[in-house]
Design goal:
about 200 residues; alpha/beta; about 15% strand; 5-stranded parallel sheet
């Protein structure tokens, strides 16, 4: 995505600080910048605007305000750069846990906005890619377990070898235009409904 095509939402109750962020973004070539000064009903506004990136500036945030912003971060699943005046270790850890892509303490300068935004987007993309790969690996592992269980059921009930049981699952999947894991899950479910096989 190019700078000009990104839709950026700036959330800042302080109008002067918001104007610094907005100026930094516009200097960096960002044309689609929306600034919101009131955090009430912010989730609805985010849904309306559908920003690609969110920049949150919190001046002296209290714990409740930080927690609300962290909950927002978990929900929106977008790159978020958060500027705060000061932070303790617990706040920084909470920001990371919430998925905030860049958490900047005492660093609101116009010329820093672009590199921080770029870093937030890169970190968000890297984290999303890792999360996706982890989910795919988990899913693959679950599929293997189900397929092994289905092979075991076929081997016991039909007296097949492991290779023949897998070949039967694969052939059935091809004939029904479904994934082997889906056929295996159906077989495991059916076997569970029919009760334990002898020897199980």
């Amino acid at each position: 995505m190019t700078a000009g095509s990104l839709t950026i939402l700036v959330i800042d109750e302080n109008r002067i600080r918001a104007s610094i962020i907005e100026a930094g973004l516009r200097d960096a070539g960002h044309r689609h910048v929306t600034v919101i000064h009131d955090v009430a009903g912010i989730a609805r506004r985010i849904a309306e605007i559908e920003p690609d990136v969110i920049v949150i500036d919190l001046e002296n945030p209290n714990r409740d305000m930080l927690e609300n912003m962290f909950q927002l971060s978990r929900a929106v699943k977008r790159p978020i750069a958060m500027f705060v005046d000061r932070a303790d270790q617990a706040s920084i850890e909470a920001a990371v846990d919430a998925g905030v892509s860049a958490y900047v303490v005492d660093g609101l300068k116009k010329e820093r906005i672009k590199p921080i935004l770029d870093m937030a987007i890169s970190r968000f993309n890297a984290f999303s890619r890792m999360a996706r790969e982890l989910e795919e690996a988990r899913s693959e592992l679950e599929n293997r377990k189900v397929i092994d269980r289905a092979k075991g059921i076929l081997m016991k009930s039909r007296g097949l070898s492991e290779e023949a049981a897998y070949a039967l699952l694969r052939k059935t999947a091809m004939n029904q235009n479904r994934k082997i894991a889906e056929i295996a899950q159906s077989l495991v479910t059916a076997a569970g409904l029919l009760g334990p096989l002898e020897g199980e």
